[in-house]
Amino acid sequence: MEKVLLEATARAERGRKVNVGRREGRVPAVVYGHSVESVSLWVNALDLKRLLKKSGESTIIDLKIDGKDDRNVLIHEIQKNGVTGKFTHIDFFQVRMDEEIETEVELVFIGEAPAVKTMGGILVKNIDKVTVKCLPADLPSHIDIDISKIVTFEDHIAIKDLQVSSKVKIELEPETVIALVSAPRTEEDLAALEEKVDADVAKVEGIVKPEAPAEEKKDKK
User: Fold this and answer.
1) Which domain holds residue 145?
2) For the whole model, what pTM was predicted?
3) Is the per-residue pLDDT at 14 higher than 60?
4) Do 68 and 133 share a structural domain?
């Protein structure tokens, strides 16, 4: 199990007062869980950014509050400013190490598909995250997808092909397709597509505006 440390401090500020902390580079946060009293916190925005870049969102975090109160948590929700992209709030969910959790894990695509490199195909990613169920200690931070196994247009990678621990259950059907490579469009396909567009435009241009009723014509005179 990958586990990372994040320092936090208890927060008393509420409402608009938290904006002062945001301007100082801190992010308001809250930690809660089953039978756990919620606690309002501050975390350092730069520390949070570094943690996410290194470990992602699907990692058990050792959240140390005021240097003494250690809690095992998962990131439940991250809110950002729609304009600046800066963190505005974060929710942590406290987990018990002896209870199964259900959360999303990111799929990381690695390698290069021969069907793309040598045959000019187009890589199609149908899924970029999967929901898993396991004990916190068995939670993977991510799952690698080796697309170099896609050699032809008939090949694909499905859920059943994922290399994960037997202790991790993926909440999707085994035959669900994760990635494949589609063949490039031929000149005939492109020509047919252009004909379809031309036909659709012709239909629009051919619409005849209905003539106004006689009563309306009289009113306009």
Assistant:
1) 103-182
2) 0.73
3) yes
4) no
- The residue out of 150, 167, 182 marking a domain boundary is 182
Query: Of the candidates 166, 182, 198, which is a domain's last residue?
Result: 182
22-52 confidence digits (pLDDT tens): 999 999 999 999 888 999 999 999 999 999 9
What CATH code is carried by the domain that includes residue 171? Answer: 2.170.120.20
Cα–Cα dist 85/42, whole Å: 18
φ, ψ for residue 157 (rounded to 5)? -115, 125
Domain count, the chain: 2
Whether 122 maps to a domain, the answer reads yes
Q: Report pLDDT digits (tens) over 152-163.
A: 999 999 999 999
DSSP secondary structure string for all residues of the chain: --EEEEEEEE----GGGHHHHHHTTEEEEEEEETTEEEEEEEEEHHHHHHHHHHH-SSSEEEEEETTTEEEEEEEEEEEE-TTT--EEEEEEEE--TTS-EEEEEEEEEES--HHHHTT--EEEE--SEEEEEE-GGG--SEEEEEGGG--STT-EEEGGG----TT-EESS-TT-EEEEEEPPPPHHHHHHHHHHHHHHHHHHHTPPPPPPPHHHHHHH-
State whether 23 and 90 are in the same domain.
yes
Question: With bands split at pLDDT 50, 70 and 90, how would you rate the model's confidence at 209?
Answer: very low
